[in-house]
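Z., the sequence and structure:
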Amino acid sequence: MRITLPGRCPRLAGVPRALARALGLLLAAAAAQPAIAAADSLSLSISPDPTASIASQISWSASSEGPTLVVIAANNPGVPCASEPSGDTGQTITPQHVLEGGHLGQFQGSIDYTPPAPGAFTLCGWLETPAGFLETDGGPVTAAASLPIQVRSPRISLSLRTLGRPQPGSRFTLQLTATTEAARRLVVEGLPLTRRRCPVNYAAEELVHIIDRVLDGGPWLIRANMMPLRAGDYIFCAWADASGDEGLYPEARASLALRLGAATRAHRPRGRRGLARS
């Protein structure tokens, strides 16, 4: 009867003693080696063609060995992602986590994001462990990701025309046709035609707004009945811009030059800046 002593490997049938000893050492070393845990990972994506003022969907795919929370932020052009959410200066998109145990293993998620303006933004993402008794944000970061995105302006179409054939001293109708992907403020002004033609924006001069509307979608037809004008050359100018920027950054423009009667210097009505509707 063969007795195997502790700590020694039994000799394998048909295997030389030296080879059996070497195999035993290799098996012992493999058993003593700790298992290597897979590192946590995070990846980000966004729906195609992100557009200013229109909601896009940010999606993420993550894998974690322990419970983790996802934090997503959008950084302004030229601002890199910080190493952790608390040090980032961007707009945090995901809501604050409270009393959440976190996700474990492989998981996905998504959230809507509306870019505030066109430009090159950077999406930043972090996996962090729940912090404290309330299981909130602020725990150690286990993985991070970033995604540069290019946000375009919404497509906007503007055109101006008059109805009929305007004559000096008679009322006439001005029509604006507009289509816009996102809600935009549309302003139309009129003034005597000069070499400068239209101002760069409607904030450049304090002129009367013949049309001033916030529109979305379209096409829209907006008509304005104009006061009679003397013979001369005039120009009507239209701009579309995001509400709240005071007209400083128009995203679309249109103009219409109008000659009434013989070619003479246009008359600017007294007591007001620019042309007015009736």
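The longest strand covers residues 172-192. DSSP finds one helix and eleven strands in the chain.

Let me know what you think.
H.
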